[in-house]
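Repro:
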Amino acid sequence: MNRRGDSSLIRGAREERATESAGRGGYRMRSGKHFVAERVVTCLFAAGIAIAWTARARAQSPPASDSGSTGSSGSTSSGASAGSSSGGASTPAGEMYASTPSPAGKGTSLQSTTDAKDFHARLGSKVDDTPYLQYGFSLVAESVLSAGKICKSSEPCILGSGGGLVLRAGVRSGSPWYVGGAYELSKQDPNNLYRFATLQQLRGEFRYYIETGRDMTPLFTAGAGIAGYGNEWTVDTWGPMAFIGVGFEFQVSRTAVMGVQAAYRGFATGRFADPGTSTPRAPGLASFFALEFVLEGRDPLKD
């Protein structure tokens, strides 16, 4: 009897150690996924910044050939006018160019100009400085990078990844700035702890466009607001949220644009308990990676 009891205790201890090691392995696996996701977000931000700075540098750099052609055309026209005014006198071309002073700064007029609109006008493109009322919607995927203290590694997490819809409206002024507001509703994966888990966000948004004079425009975006999470449209926990991201916008027509935005969001959850299981949830910071596919219309605010 004692031997049987001892063997059963040994088997029980082995099973407990196996369960703990499996739990630690699962936690390491989740931590590895979070590590990879954070590195993907960092790479996306770095790529967006590099693309934006490259596009702005190309937009502001004047073509080198224009200054040379302007200087040569100016010298040719001055030489031709000097020859015609002399009544057809046979003056060698070299002496004509040497004796005719070129206007100061004639060949460097493009280089001394730093206004982006002048550059775009000379290149045949135009920056639209009309203010617009811009409105529309976007499809969004909300991937949870870290649920924070709202979830424990030994239990199913009540806050998982999901997707939904964003409705927004704002004003894009004649400057590169956009200011507006947005309401987002997304269905998240609650691991069967909720019947229909909903994440709601109400936030203000800012965008800064890198003007290139082309149909595709890079942008930076940021904003802040409040968010709430709960079951079936209710709010069990809420708190402040903020985000920062990059993207681009493609002008389909004068009154329609579409684009893609990638952003990192942070949501500070409050203390609450599950309505079904009464499990207490500690406050913490939940991190998301959001990817939006945007479609917006715009109406000019002035003719």
